[in-house]
């Protein structure tokens, strides 16, 4: 359900009318009551009525999915929210106002009454004007009339309230716009962190390395070379620069880069939808104590986690008994919904190994590979359903072998399709002699350790049915099928999971 935070009052009512006209009406909104939450399950929407100053807070802390609030509040609070759209309603202007006949004395500190403290500070900082702010929450027009302040900074709609109290607008505050001040050689101006540099300035010095004397003298306590503390135009990204290459995964830094460039949308690869099926009468839930001849269902959990880690979408994951009709039904369902199906177990030549037969029967292309020259992973099945465009993978039942095959084949294939760069291998020295397997590429698990001569790769020995070997390993080395083995001290490439 979509949670929308609305400001109480006329603005909230106006926004609700717009949303209702768009089809997101909610019965009961205009009922005479004190309810703060209104929802419509039929329209899948819920409205939250909150104080205008709290709208952005609800969104920032994920209590609401979206909110509608005035620009003045967003700029004043500096909330960590994304501004989607200007609705062009409730138009006001921020203005400086003073009593009729007021003449500013620029030789003394200007006294300002406002509830917009941060906006006011930024505005006068751009003018290098020293001010004394008195924060008020209401009846701000009274402050200069009673001599409390010289001027006020407040939002103005029609100006009638100002006129009725003998005040006039001196100038408008262009909130969210760059400073309009200009400095001459030999002069300086205060600029808030992240603010635009005034015209004529070519360097910045942090305020903690300066000292102000009176109203027109500033001492600097460090050298200020050209360009110091300033991001110059084109310094970050130049016209024509390739910012993000195809295949780049979008993380926080990449999203921030796109935001800086004003890029709202980018084409992305849709993650493969994946189903994981673990077969075997011997499998029991991981919260059960295995009986004689039983084992906990390791592969469903391990493969599911690896699928998610790769960035793919896990649609389903379950264990299936060695019943041909049941397994075929599950695979048929998965073919309709998924791009990749991983079936662990049932890929060898035993009496209950029926995966290949089922895949050949239900897929349009069928099995094109049964058996790989790979250790571990010899019984791997690869198939393809041409009609549904679904990849079919029959993985070994042994946990370490299943994970190794998934990484070597399917993770590699996903990176090739999406253009993602492979993680570069690490260079290390073998700690012992190792024999290869004639006619097979050997995937050997290793753990890394530092030694005086550099990084060392120590083999993790164990059968492919032992998941603990994968947990202990930092990566793997490959021994080519035409290679006799590896020698102690030989430099090898370690590929990380």
Overall description:
This protein is α/β, with parallel strands linked by helices and 497 residues long. It has 4 domains: 2-77, D-Maltodextrin-Binding Protein, domain 2 (3-Layer(aba) Sandwich), CATH 3.40.190.10; 93-173, D-Maltodextrin-Binding Protein, domain 2, CATH 3.40.190.10; 273-418, Molybdenum Cofactor Biosythetic Enzyme, Chain A; 426-496, Beta-clip (Beta Barrel), CATH 2.40.340.10. It contains 12 helices and 27 strands. A 6-stranded mixed beta sheet has the order 15-12-16-20-19-17, sandwiched between helices. A hairpin with a 3-residue loop joins β10 and β11. The radius of gyration is 34 Å and the shape is elongated. The model has no long low-confidence stretch (mean pLDDT 87).
Oligomer: single chain
Q: In one word, what is the shape?
A: elongated
Sheet with the most strands, sense and barrel status: 6 strands, mixed
Name of the CATH architecture of the largest domain:
3-Layer(aba) Sandwich
* Helix-strand makeup class: alpha/beta
Mean pLDDT over the full residue set: 87
Q: Could you list the spans in which at least 5 consecutive residues all have pLDDT below 50?
A: none
DSSP helical segment count? 12
CATH superfamily heading of the largest domain: MoaB/Mog-like domain
User: What percentage of residues falls in helices of 4 or more residues?
Assistant: 10-25%
Gyration radius (Cα, Å) is 34 Å
């Amino acid at each position: 359900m979509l949670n929308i935070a609305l400001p109480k009052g006329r603005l909230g009512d106006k926004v609700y009318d717009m949303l209702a006209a768009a089809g997101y009406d909610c019965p009961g909104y205009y009922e005479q009551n004190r309810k703060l939450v209104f929802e419509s399950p039929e329209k899948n929407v819920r409205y939250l009525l909150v104080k205008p100053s709290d709208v952005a807070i609800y969104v920032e802390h994920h209590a609401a999915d979206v909110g509608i609030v005035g620009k003045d509040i967003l700029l004043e609070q500096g909330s960590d929210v994304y501004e989607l759209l200007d609705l062009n309603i409730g138009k006001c202007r921020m203005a400086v106002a003073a009593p009729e006949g007021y003449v500013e004395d620029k030789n003394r500190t200007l006294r300002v009454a406002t509830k917009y403290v941060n906006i006011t500070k930024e505005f006068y900082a751009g003018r290098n004007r020293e001010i004394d702010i008195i924060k008020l929450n209401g009846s701000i027009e009274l402050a200069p009339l009673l001599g409390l302040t010289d001027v006020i900074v407040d939002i103005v709609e029609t100006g009638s309230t100002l006129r009725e109290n003998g005040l006039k607008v001196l100038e408008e505050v262009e909130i969210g716009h760059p400073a309009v001040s200009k400095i001459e050689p030999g002069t300086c101006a205060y600029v808030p962190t992240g603010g635009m540099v005034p015209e004529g300035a070519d360097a910045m010095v942090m305020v903690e390395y300066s000292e102000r004397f009176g109203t027109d003298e500033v001492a600097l306590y460090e050298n200020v070379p050209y360009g110091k503390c300033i991001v110059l135009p084109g310094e970050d990204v130049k016209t024509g620069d390739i910012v993000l290459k195809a295949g780049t995964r979008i993380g926080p830094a990449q999203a921030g880069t796109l935001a800086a460039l004003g890029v709202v949308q980018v084409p992305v690869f849709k993650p493969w939808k994946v189903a994981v099926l673990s077969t075997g009468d011997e499998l029991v839930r991981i919260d059960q104590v295995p009986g004689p001849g039983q084992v906990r269902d390791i592969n469903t959990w391990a493969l599911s986690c690896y699928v998610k880690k790769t960035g793919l979408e896990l649609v389903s994951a379950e264990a299936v008994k060695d019943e041909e009709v049941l397994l075929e039904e599950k695979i048929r369902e998965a073919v309709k919904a998924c791009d990749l199906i991983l079936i662990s177990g049932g890929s060898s030549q035993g009496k209950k190994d029926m995966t290949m037969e089922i895949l050949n029967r239900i897929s349009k292309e069928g099995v094109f590979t049964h058996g790989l020259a790979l250790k571990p992973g010899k019984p791997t099945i690869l198939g393809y359903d041409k009609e549904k465009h679904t990849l079919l993978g029959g993985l070994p039942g042994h946990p370490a072998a299943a994970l190794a095959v998934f990484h070597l084949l399917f993770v590699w294939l996903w990176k090739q399709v999406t253009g993602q760069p492979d993680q570069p291998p690490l260079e290390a020295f073998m700690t012992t002699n190792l024999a290869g397997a004639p006619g097979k590429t050997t995937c050997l698990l290793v753990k890394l350790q530092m030694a005086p001569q550099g990084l060392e790769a120590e083999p993790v020995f164990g059968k492919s049915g032992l998941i603990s070997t994968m947990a202990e390993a930092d990566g793997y080395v490959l021994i080519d099928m035409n290679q006799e083995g590896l020698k102690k001290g030989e430099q090898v490439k370690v590929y990380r999971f």
